[in-house]
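Slide 14.
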Amino acid sequence: MSTPPGRSGFEAYRDPDADPPALVVRVGATELQYHLGCIEDLHAMLIEHGDWMPLGNADEQKPARDGTVEAWARSTANPVGGWYGIKKGLRGRFGNYVPPVLEALGLAEVEHNARNNRMRAI
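Slide 15: predicted structure.
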């Protein structure tokens, strides 16, 4: 897979046997993990949102811009009540890696511009 701007390649797979079950993303030697339910939860949120939503990609240490997929993935109002990222220090970048997974699964449309990409449910 590749990030929305197409600058970086990565591998993603489901690990239902992890504790907790995870969507695993490998970028070079780095492994990020997100709660496996993020796929269905993000899709449901996008359906409810009903329009394009900015991705808002950001590292864990940086604040996420309000109204973005990244901000939703950190919000106490989401279905997991906070971060979808599992490994402290590597909990960010949800808006960079999870949207292409939804696109590959046929659940979302993702823009592929150099910056400021958005997504919507299909």
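Speaker note: The mean pLDDT is 97.
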